[in-house]
Amino acid sequence: MSSDATITGGANTPKVAGAEGVPPAELDRLTDDIVAALKSVYDPEIPADIYELGLIYKVDIDDDRKVSIDMTLTAPGCPVAGEMPGWVEDAVAKVPGVQSCAVTMVFDPPWDQSRMSDEARVALDMW
């Protein structure tokens, strides 16, 4: 059984679920560090990180500190579709305390620009 915690943010904020066996303070630290790791991953064609673009839909942290992430792309035919999940797994797996990371690519619901944060909108001049 897991308890839900929410990462702070806007419309792009993914659902974060942490296992009950992870103490709240540790879950908060892991969540902050995972968000920072996600913000280090960029689509090479877009000058905004994947978190601010709203490409991360869900982050689950289990009792063993294994992280599962559901993410999407701005378009199913994205040229880095085959590489980006590996970039995300590598970045999150480096977070202290994370035992492993697995990324699942999802396309439902489809991504649209409403998922972007204000920070991404500024970076892309999309007001």
Structure overview:
The chain has helices spanning 24-38, 50-53, 84-93, 118-124; strands at residues 2-6, 15-19, 56-61, 66-71, 100-105. It is of the alpha/beta class. The longest helix is centred in the N-terminal third of the chain and has 15 residues, at 24-38. The chain is globular, with a radius of gyration of 14 Å.
Topology (SSEs and partners):
Blueprint: E1 2-6, E2 15-19, H1 24-38, H2 50-53, E3 56-61, E4 66-71, H3 84-93, E5 100-105, H4 118-124
Please give a quick description of this structure.
This protein has 4 helices and 5 strands; from the N terminus they run E-E-H-H-E-E-H-E-H.
Low-confidence stretches: 1-10
Order of strands, main sheet, comes to: 1-2-3-4-5
Radius of gyration: 14 Å
Q: Note the total helix count.
A: 4
Strand content: 15-25%
Sequence of secondary-structure elements: EEHHEEHEH
Give the overall average pLDDT: 86
How much helix, percentage-wise, in residues? 25-40%
The main β sheet shows up as: 5 strands, mixed
Note the overall shape: globular
Which secondary-structure class do the elements indicate? alpha/beta
Total beta strand runs: 5
Between the first and last Cα atoms, what is the distance in angstroms?
A: 41 Å
